Amino acid sequence: MRTLAHLAHLALTVAVVAGCASTEPDHQHHHHHHSMTAEEAARLRGVATTYLGLLSGGDPATAWAMWTTDAQQRDPREVFVDRLAQCEPGVPYEVLGVVPNGPDLARVAWRHGERTGEHLLRLHDGRWRVDPVDTTTCGAP
């Protein structure tokens, strides 16, 4: 009986270790999480605050210019600007947190009125660019 319990424990341990060795693309970057400097964290928060401030201040064209090339190709500037023109102006966006996901990716959590959401920041050619997760509604930049 003791051997069966030992084997069950061993099988569970192997399953847990195998789960940790996941091949998810950003799983390997988790060890970078703690290596971000205070200066880099402040820079990321600054980019996020600038971007959300442009949306709050009614300047979606400049906000769109901060997007990654892929995001810009998915959602043309004119379409984004027209859509945001339909939104309620003056409701401020608030940065709730910025969490690094590796050396070239970070997640930004935000609040806009009653709504919360997130977008990504990607390091591209030495500059942090916004990669919006969802650009289809007023509450999701």
TrEMBL record:
* Signal as UniProt keyword: yes
The region annotated as signal peptide is 1-18
Which UniProt keywords are given for this protein, alphabetically ordered? Signal
Signal among keywords: yes
Mind telling me which InterPro entries this protein's record contains?
A: NTF2-like_dom_sf
Superkingdom in the source lineage = Bacteria
| Entry protein name | Lipoprotein
